[in-house]
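Notes from hallway chat w/ T.B., transcribed later so I don't forget. T.B. wanted the structure written out for a chain they're using in a teaching module, and asked if we could keep both sequence and structure tokens in one place. Agreed to drop them here.
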Amino acid sequence: MVDWSSRGEEQKDASACQSEKGRFRLTKEDRIRRSSDYQRVMKQGVHYRTPHFHIRMLRNPLRMTRLGLAIGKKAGKACVRNRIKRGLKEYFRLHRDKMPPGTDMVFIAVPGAAALGTDQLRAELDRFFDREL
């Protein structure tokens, strides 16, 4: 039997692993879920455009960045809309540090957004967040 503790490797603290994992999670609190919150962002938020998305942003009192998605039927059939949503959620989850803290953001897809691949989506949003914010 091998004694793994004698190999000289440090054991990681379990709480440190949990906090590292938690940093990349997309929880309910990270999303805009109420209709009134969507309406507030759409009416009062600042409007930005990229080639494939309209983005509305508004400061929130929660001091955390939240994501909202509005992908209409003009973007494509259900499987296409779901792929766009997955790509936006993944970008938000991994690049949250680029986004302004304490902001509600609603992404609205333009019909050509379905043609974007993962790398193209990332490049477009990287350009937006590096340039605008």
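Follow-up for T.B.: Residues 4-19 have pLDDT under 50 and may be disordered. Might be a good example for the class.
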